[in-house]
## 1
Amino acid sequence: MNQAPDPLRLELAAAAARLIADGGLDYASAKKKALRQAFGARAAPKGSIPDNDEIDAALLEHLALFDPGHAARIAQRRQLAATLMQRLQAFQPFVTGAVWKGIVTEHAPIHLQLFHDDAKEIEIELLNAGLAFDVATVPHFRGTGEVEAIVFHLNDVPVLLSLYAHDDLRGALRAGPAGAERGDRRALLARAAEPA
C-alpha cells in the first residue's frame, strides 16, 4: 500500500532543488541550507529530510518550469561528454551525475569516473591536450574515504574527473535503487538518442 508523499519532505526537496538550480550548490549543502531556512537552529522533524531521488524529481520539475534551455543543455553536455570519453578511453571512463541522469543545471559539471593504474598518466594526457586543471578530492562513490579528482573547463563547461583504481571498477556497475548510476560511452550515446 503506497503512502501519500509527506508534504514537508516535498517542500524541503523543492527548496533544495531551487538552491541547486539557482545557486549551484551540491546536494548535501542544498539540503542543509533548506533545513536551516525552514527550521533555523531547531532540529527537523524525524523523517522530513528528503533523499536525493526526491530532490532529483523536484529539480527536474523546477528545470522543466523555469529553464527553457534545459533540453538543449542536456544534449550539448552529453555530446561533449561522449567526445571527452572517446579521448580518455584508455582510462575506462564512465559518466555519472547530472549528465547521466539528464538533470543538468547551468552549474552542473560533466562528471566522468576514470579507472586507471596511474593518475599521472591522466594528468599528462590533459597537459598534452593543453588543458589547465586543478586537483581536488571527492568522496568515493562507495562512501568510503575520498579519491583524487581533476577539475577544469572545456568549452566553458565545467568538468570533473574522479580517479579510481582499476579494482573499483568491479563495484561500479551495480545498479542502485534508481537504476544504473553511471554508464560507459555506448550507454551514454544510447541515452542521448532517446526522445526527450
## 2
Amino acid sequence: MMDLQETLRKIKTELRLSMNGVASAYMRENGVEYKLNFGVELPRLREIAAGFPMDHGLAQALWKEDIRECKILAAMLQPTETFYPGIADIWVEAMPNAEIAQHTVMNLFCRLPYASQKAFEWMAADDETRQLCGYLLIARLFMKGMAPNRRSADEFLDQARTALHASPAVRRAAVSALRKYQELDEEAFQEGEKLLMEAGL
C-alpha cells in the first residue's frame, strides 16, 4: 500500500503526463492564475480520480497544493462523512477563484448532508467568495430537484435580489441559481421572472 507522499507523487506524475499546455496558456491569458496549472481537462481528471481511493487524508493534502488539478481532484476524492461543516468553511476561505469554486461545489459540496444549510449561510455572508459558493451550491441543489419550503424560498429570493447588484461573478451565480429555481414550478418561475425584470436582466 502506498503512503500519502508516494500517492501524491504518483498523482502529480499522471498530471504531468496529461498536461495540456494550450489549455493552461488560455486560462492564464484569461486571468485565471494558479501557481501551477497543467491544463488537464475534466474527463481526464475523472479518470485519474477513479484510480485512487476516496480518502480524507489524501483529499486534504491535495487541497493544500497550489495546483489547479490537485484542488479539483481533492473535491473528487474527499469522502462526505469526514468532511465536517468547519472544514467546508476552511475550504471556502481558501478558494482561489471561481473555477475551483464551481468544481468544488459540483464534485463535493452538493453531496454534503448539510449542503442546503451551508448554501443559505454562505449566500448571506459578507464576503464575495462565500456568496459565490452559496449561489453555485443552491443552483446545484435546485438542479437535483430540491424544492425549498416557503420560508426558505423567500429567504433565497431576498438574498438573490441583493446579489443581482453585486460583483459580476456573484451576479452571474445568482442569475444561474434563479434560473434553476424557476424550473421547479410555475410559481417559482413567476417569482424569478419578477426579480430578473426588476434588475433589468
